Amino acid sequence: MVGRLWFLVLMLFSVCIGISHASAGDINPIYRSCVNQCLSEGCIGDRCFDQCKVPSSTSSADSPWYLQKPLYVKWKQSGCLSDCRYHCMDHAETERQALGHNPVKYHGKWPFKRVIGLQEPVSVALSILNLLMHLCGWLSFSKLIYYKLPLKQNSTYYEYTTLWHIYAFLSMNSWFWSAVFHSRDVDFTEKLDYSSAVAVLGCSLTISLMRSFHVRVEAARVMVAAPLLAFTVTHILYLNFYKMDYGWNMQVCVVMAVAQLLVWAVWAGVTRHPSRLKLWFVVIAGGLAMLLEIYDFPPYEGFVDAHALWHAATVPLTYCWWSFIKDDAKFRTSDLVKKAK
Q: Minimal CA–CA distance to 25: which of 115, 99, 86, 100?
């Protein structure tokens, strides 16, 4: 059942990848005319933008430090092109709404309403919440490992402690850049968001294989981790320095996500782990949550779309996941302590 579910998810993603990236909103002649006029004149009706009035031959970076704007002001001001696109989109959507038409995408994205300069405020808030959930889970895990469970002379009994530390760091890093990317979508933040997400997937796939197949010997761990690490790093370098291929990146991410969830699902079905029900819950609920990435719909009131709901769904899943990790640490430590005696 779970295998069929993930096969369906993979097929649906493959269909989505084949869809053209052209959006109905940004090919609208009225919208394009509005943007071009804004770029040339620096105004849309009575609204004008200071950053569009700066001569192209000058740059704020060339100005003396005492004339440059503070960083938080630069962060809120997304540049002439971004502001022109946003306000032309807002004007076009107001007219479409008056005519009873549904919202359309612009440059591959739904029209969102900005709040204090944040492009997708709900996704930003939920990304920060996910980061905090991982931080709390990691701190709770560390407290359990180092202060509550028995320790060996130079290390913990739990064989996967270091791997979960790495996973926690990469997860928090990923959610941090997710918050940054959703607050300001530029080339730099996009690459960091995509790269950090790939890094988490590569790490979690490695952990799933090592834990499910009970890989404890150092040489065997290297044999499992080395090819996965090499592929993950190569893919990240490809995205950053060769080509930002969205279709290929989606295929890579889906394959890695489905592979690790299938590994966990199979292991949960054959193991007698005392917390296997928590693992089943994370696997099945995680699969259902991924469907939100497929069922795309316009943002409600300009704020909440399917992607934001996916961010919301991952909050309780993160709590359950770290709960399983702590239970696994207790289970393995207890078993190893008994064998040591």
A: 86
Tens of pLDDT, residues 58-90: 444 455 655 566 655 554 545 677 788 888 998
Q: Name the DSSP letter for residue 280.
A: H
Q: What is the largest distance, in Å, between two alpha-carbon atoms of the chain?
A: 80
Find out whether 205 and 256 touch, Cβ atoms under 8 Å.
yes
* d(C-alpha 290, C-alpha 287), whole Å: 5
Distance between CA 87 and CA 125 in Å, rounded?
A: 23
Confidence category of residue 7, pLDDT binned at 50, 70, 90: very low
Q: Which two tokens stand for residue 162?
A: 């270091």
Tokens 């769904």 found at: 313
For residue 114, give every residue at least 6 positions away whose Cβ sits within 8 Å of its Cβ, in sequence order, or none: 86, 121
Q: Is the pLDDT of residue 162 over 70?
A: yes
Supply the DSSP string of 242-264, one letter for each residue. Answer: T---HHHHHHHHHHHHHHHHHHH
pLDDT at 5: 39
Judged by DSSP in three states, 106 sits in strand
For 132-151, letters b (16+ CB in 10 Å) and e give ebbeebbeebeebbeeebee
Q: Half-sphere exposure (CA, 13 Å, Cβ side) for 264? A: 28
Contact 228, 239 (CB under 8 A): no
Q: Is the pLDDT reported for residue 18 higher than 70?
A: no
Q: Which two tokens stand for residue 100?
A: 């009873």
| Interatomic CA distance for residues 36 and 190, integer angstroms | 25
| C-alpha 220 chain-centroid distance | 30
Q: In terms of C-beta density within 10 A (0-12 exposed, 13-18 middle, 19 or more buried), how is residue 241 classed?
A: exposed
